[in-house]
From TrEMBL:
Top-level taxon in the UniProt lineage: Eukaryota
Residues annotated as domain MARVEL: 29-164
Alphabetically ordered keywords of this record: Lipoprotein, Membrane, Transmembrane, Transmembrane helix
Organism (species): Xiphophorus couchianus (Monterrey platyfish)
Protein name as annotated: Myelin and lymphocyte protein
Length: 166
């Protein structure tokens, strides 16, 4: 089993390929809580995507929006993480863009969370034994979606504070 130090050393070996300036910005080697937890919205968003995709997507229109939001935010946050890891965030407009992206992601996730909660309530009212598994998966997706919303809002707030200080 690798220790945390071994993981940091192995990531440090990969970072020179991205450029020397990316080493300070890579979230897995950071020392602060905010830097170490910066990738949680991506993980939680991917979990929402998996939970919704594992159920029968009925009705298609509102759950299609939930799928779009989770995939959009997952891909966008992953690309954002790669840009920061490679040190491409050295210009002065990046903090504002960071705050803007995460605010848009938070609003998208808030709307998707409300839609998903409403559909889950409707499924729960007509619950039979065959629908119980779908209902439980949807409850898990609703909880994770609200957690992702909270994390994106917190990230947007901290990014806006960092933007104003820069």
């Amino acid at each position: 089993m690798e220790s945390r130090l071994d993981l940091v050393v192995s990531f440090d070996a990969v970072l020179p390929a991205c450029g020397d300036s990316g080493k300070e910005n890579f979230p897995l080697t950071g020392r602060t809580l905010r830097k170490n937890l910066g990738h949680l919205p991506t993980v939680i968003g991917g979990l929402v995507w998996i939970l919704v995709a594992s159920t029968r997507v009925v009705p298609e229109n509102p759950l299609g929006w939930v799928m779009f939001v989770s995939v959009f935010c997952f891909v966008g946050t992953t690309l954002w993480l790669l840009i920061f890891a490679c040190g491409g965030n050295q210009s002065s407009f990046w903090p504002g863009l960071d705050a803007g992206f995460h605010f848009v992601a938070a609003v998208f996730y808030l709307s998707a969370s409300v839609v998903l909660a409403y559909i889950t309530i409707l499924i729960g009212k007509g619950s039979t034994f065959g629908i119980l598994k779908t209902y439980r998966l949807d409850i898990s997706a609703v909880v994770m979606s609200h957690v992702a919303t909270l994390l994106y809002f917190l990230h947007a707030i901290f990014s806006a504070i960092r933007w104003k200080r820069a």
